[in-house]
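Example noted here:
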Amino acid sequence: MEIHMVTIKHFLALIIAIAVILPAASAMVGGDKAWFLIHSNVDGASVFFGGEYQGVTTNGELYVEYFTTGTPVTYFMVTKDGYSPYTGQITHYPAKGEVVDLYATLQPAEPTPMPPPIGGSIGWYTVYANVDGASVYFDNDLKGTTANGELTVQVYVTATPYQTFRVSKAGYSDFTSQITDWPAAGETIKLHANLQPVAPTQPQPSPVSVLTIVAGAFGAAVLLAFRRK
C-alpha cells in the first residue's frame, strides 16, 4: 500500500511538472503573437524575413506574424522582377498584439545592356574601277563585280575591319591595295582601282635543231643526184 501511494505521488508530481514545463516550452518556441506590416510601393513583391519567404504584397501590404518570445529577426528583404531588391534592418520589435510598420521602396532595375548584334551599324565602301565586270575582293572575300565602273560594298562598322581589297579581270593585271580608312555608321568610303591591260604574249619561234638542218641537206643532195641520173 505504501508503494502504491509513492507511485501516485510521483505520478502527480510528474503531471504538475509537465503542466509547468509545457507553457514555458511553448513560450520558448514562439510565445505570444504580434505582427509586422510591410508596406511596399509595388504589388506582388516577395517578402523575406531573415531569408525565409513570408508571402507577397497585395495592395502594397503584407502582414507577417511574429512571436514576441521567438528568436528576433534582424533584417527583411522585398524583391520583384524588374526592380532592385530592397533590404532593410529591423530595429524595433512589436509587443504582444502590437503591429510594427516596415517600409520598402523598390526602384526599377537598370536594364541590362544588350550586346550589339554581330556587325552592329552599317557603313559602305564604293569601289571605282576603270573597267566593268571586274571582280572585287575584300581580304579575299568576293563582294561582287563592277557595273558602270563601280561597286558598293556594305560593311558592319563594329565587325573586324578589312585590311586589303583586290580588283581583277581577265586580260588585266590585278590591282591590290591596303584599306586605311573605315566608314562610320551611315558613312561611305571611296576606293579607287586602276587596272592595266596585260601585254599579249608573242609566240616564240621554235629553234631549228642541227639534226633537222643536216637531214634537210641530205635530202636535197639525194634529190639532186637522182635528177642527174
Remarks:
- DSSP finds two helices and 14 strands in the chain.
- The two ends are 178 Å apart (CA to CA).
- The longest helix spans residues 2-29.
- The CA atoms of residues 77 and 87 lie 4 Å apart.
